[in-house]
Specification:
With 337 residues, this protein is of the alpha+beta class. It has a single domain, classed as L-amino peptidase D-ALA esterase/amidase, CATH 3.60.70. The chain has seven helices and 14 strands. The strands form four sheets. It has a six-stranded mixed sheet with strand order 3-2-12-11-9-8, with helices on both faces. The chain is globular and about 70 Å long.
Length: 337
């Protein structure tokens, strides 16, 4: 069992006030429930959850069970639940995510630093054929740009090794070993899969291999953006994925959602709502922050993740940080901290 669930409460678990939101899909080989109502209404009306592909249903149902017992919520719900596939490391057909795990995540969520790497929904994920998972990053804009914050959380499970790039440096081609492999000597385990070398090395990269997997991205900001502007922000996350080496491959589910915590009570039926909106000519700093924070969140997921051996002795290696430092220095991009 190498799986779990990650939950985000836009305004905190004790504040049911909806937030303006929008979503975007770069490639649709994946799932994010509830998005048709987000698109229609312009609001996100509850938590966002991220899990594995075969646990979307149980997570959605558990969120509904949690919501209907809490005051201030409407008597029906269309929860937003997204997924990426962890069937390499996890016994995905064992359906190990249970309602009690979802409820624990909903009730246990807190503010402050977010755990990264092999945690929550990201536990069994693989990114650019290194161990992936949950990653976060944020940008604080200067006073001249409004002083707003843009935060990004990713569940990264996508990408070909050869395409991985860090600040323009071809890390994936430079680290062409340490590919996922099977540690077991039993020939009946995963027939045809790579075998981990007995000396600890692994087979070398085959340039013909395609990128596979998916990435879910959640963008949060306190900038006063309306749904059509948040749709524009959500699309910019694709540029951050591209900077890291994601190409929206055919087999990838690349789905993004953005929300704003500004404009409280905008969804209340209390007469004409008075809203604040950032003028479009001032939105570029939000775009830049989104691209940068997305790129860094993916990198942080890779840096925080640890080597994992999962179902059928399948092993996925962590990104070797010391080697990354050496390669970056060799390309004239030294890491100073």
């Amino acid at each position: 069992m190498r799986t779990g669930v990650t939950v985000i409460h836009p305004r905190g678990k004790n504040d049911a006030d909806p937030v303006f939101a929008a979503w975007f899909t770069l490639n649709g080989n994946g799932e994010m429930t509830g998005t048709t109502w987000v698109q229609e209404s312009g609001f996100l009306e509850g938590p966002i959850a991220i899990t594995n592909t075969h646990s979307v249903g149980v997570v959605r149902d558990a969120i509904l069970a949690w919501q209907v017992k809490r005051p201030g919520l409407q008597p029906w719900g269309l929860p937003v639940v997204a997924e990426t596939y962890d069937g390499g490391l996890n016994d995905i057909n064992g359906f190990h995510v249970k309602p009690e795990h979802v409820l624990a995540a909903l009730d246990g969520a807190t503010s402050g630093p977010v755990p990264e790497g092999n945690v929550g929904g990201g536990t069994g994920m693989v990114c650019h054929q290194f161990k992936g998972g949950i990653g976060t990053a944020s940008r604080n804009l200067g006073p001249e740009a409004g002083g707003y914050t843009v935060g990004v959380l990713v569940q990264c499970n996508y990408g070909a090794r050869a395409e991985l790039s860090v600040a323009g440096v071809p890390i994936g081609r430079e680290i062409a070993d340490l590919l996922p492999c099977v540690a077991s000597a039993d020939p009946g385990v995963r027939p045809g899969a790579r075998r981990c070398d007995s000396q600890g090395s692994t087979p070398r990269l085959n340039d013909a291999e395609e990128g596979a997997g998916s990435i879910i991205i959640v963008i949060a900001t306190d900038a006063p953006l309306l749904p059509h502007q948040l749709k524009r922000v959500a699309t910019r996350a694709a540029l951050g994925v591209g900077r890291m080496g994601g190409k929206g491959e055919n087999s990838s589910g690349d789905i993004f959602i953005a929300f704003s915590t500004a404009n409280p009570r905008a969804a209340a039926d209390a007469g004409t709502a008075r809203l604040a909106m950032l003028p479009n000519p001032r939105i570029n700093p939000i775009f830049y922050a989104t691209v940068q924070a997305t790129e860094e969140a993916i990198l942080n997921a890779l840096l925080a993740a640890e080597t994992m051996t999962g179902a059928d002795d399948y092993r996925v290696y962590a990104l070797p940080v010391d080697r990354v430092r050496q390669i970056m220095g060799r390309y004239g991009r030294p890491i100073t901290r």
